Amino acid sequence: MASTTSDVPWLDAGQQRDWRAFLEGSARFFDALGAAHDAELDLTTGEYSLLVRLSEAPGHTLRMSVLAEGLVLSRSRLTHTVTRMEARGLVERCSADGDRRGVNCRLTDVGLQVLEAAAPGHVRAVRRLLVDVLEPEELASLGRIMDKISGASLEELEGTDRCAS
Amino acid sequence: MASTTSDVPWLDAGQQRDWRAFLEGSARFFDALGAAHDAELDLTTGEYSLLVRLSEAPGHTLRMSVLAEGLVLSRSRLTHTVTRMEARGLVERCSADGDRRGVNCRLTDVGLQVLEAAAPGHVRAVRRLLVDVLEPEELASLGRIMDKISGASLEELEGTDRCAS
DNA sequence: GGTGGGTAGTTGAGATCTCAACTACCTCGG
DNA sequence: CCGAGGTAGTTGAGATCTCAACTACCCACC
Q1: Strand D bases contacted by the protein (CB, 7 Å)
Q2: Contact B35 A5 (CB under 8 A)
Q3: Residue-wise pLDDT tens digits, A106-160
Q4: Residue B83: how many other CB atoms lie within 10 Å
Q5: What is the C-alpha to C-alpha distance for residues A37 and A55, in angstroms, rounded to an integer?
Q6: CA–CA distance, A89 with A107 (Å, rounded to integer)
Q7: Do B116 and B79 meet the contact criterion of CB atoms below 8 Å apart?
Q8: CA–CA distances in Å: residue A12 to residues A39, B31, B136
Q9: DSSP letters along chain A, please?
Q10: Contact (Cβ atoms closer than 8 angstroms) between residue A129 and residue B152
């Protein structure tokens, strides 16, 4: 884009390069990670993340809304995903404690087994594509930087329910 | 995940944190960027990127395969996307020069106008969510790091056609 | 000069995602 | 109590994406 119209703070060449590197790098990374999952695992990356969250939760159980927020999924998308995973027996819904609107999602034994079977392949892929590609201090920088980015986006969408519609 | 099974090089706590920061940060960022596009622009982020590529190409024209590779899209997805954009008059297909299998995609005048109308809002969002959030040297680091990540993923998928099926 | 193997792009059906209702519940003020 | 307004989750229809054929073409070798 030529920067003819003024009063818009265009990006300079370096910013442009860096931003595009981010755009392209994440696209390629998530694409390659997805390909690795397709090739050797029975779970998409999204399903895997969902199971991981549950496996870390007390009682292997989490409220739908907590899952949605944590996984950066819309409520609707989570509903559909959980429905599919429930049909496969990986996960089950149970009504929540006090609030009768709430629904809990619980990891089943089968789900745990599937997760454990998938974990090595997943971790190998994350190493191959990310962790082992960077110097330790680069990985740490990436972590710090991405936290800042998370923060800014979170702030922008607070109040809104982009991922909670 | 507890790391009981051995012989898999699990991530240590720091690596885990950094990797998850990347995962969550990109998800939140692209979600927020998409929301910004929805709110003020007539183009999704993907459509915007496609128009940008064309606008930078000689003759505002690019081969489908080049577009697909550059945008990290499968051939099939690009076909569908271009079909929809062509129906909106943003872009047009024309048969390529020497190779009669090839198809060129060209930016139309309308497409250029729409792109120019969208650019300020897009750039503002990228600033707000990324560029202005980071110190200049952080943005530069991010760029370098993401280039390395791109490289690793590209290497992994070379030969394969994950994004060219 | 034709045949085998590759490349470019498309197609359509099924899977997934989005968006806007919609149900059911909670909460709080009056 | 009851009603208004908010929250949790679901639903279904339409949009989009994926995957596996499929068409058309190029190339190189015999």
Answers
A1: 6-12, 16-21, 24-27
A2: no
A3: 999 999 999 999 999 999 999 999 999 999 999 999 999 999 999 999 988 775 6
A4: 11
A5: 19
A6: 9
A7: no
A8: 40, 24, 12
A9: ----S-SS----HHHHHHHHHHHHHHHHHHHHHHHHHHHH-SS-HHHHHHHHHHHHSGGGEEEHHHHHHHHT--HHHHHHHHHHHHHTTSEEEEE-SS-TT-EEEEE-HHHHHHHHHHHHHHHHHHHHHTGGGS-HHHHHHHHHHHHHHHHHHHHHHSSS-GGG-
A10: yes
Is the pTM higher than 0.85? The answer reads yes
Sign of the four-CA dihedral B63, A38, A143, B24: positive
Q: What is the pLDDT confidence band of residue A161, given thresholds at 50, 70 and 90?
A: low
Pairing of strands A103-107, B91-95: unpaired
Instruction: Tell me which residues of chain A, numbers 96 to 125, contact chain B at a CB-CB cutoff of 8 Å.
Output: 115-116, 119-120, 123-124
What is residue A96's predicted lDDT score, i.e. its pLDDT? 83
Distance CA A60, CA A31 (A): 29
d(CA B93, CA A100): 55
Extract the tokens encoding B19.
């990797």
pLDDT at A3: 46
Residue B81, Cβ density class (10 Å: 0-12 exposed, 13-18 middle, ≥19 buried): buried
B65's enclosing H/E stretch is: helix B64-71
Query: What SS3 state is found at B111?
Result: helix
Give the tens place of pLDDT for each residue, A70-79. Answer: 999 999 999 9
Give the residue from B44, B73, B61, B152 showing the smallest Cα distance to B107: B61
C-alpha distance from residue A4 to each of A9, B119, B126, B128 (Å)? 11, 11, 18, 21
Nucleotides of C under 7 A from a protein CB: 6-12, 16-21, 24-27
- Specify the pLDDT at position A162: 67
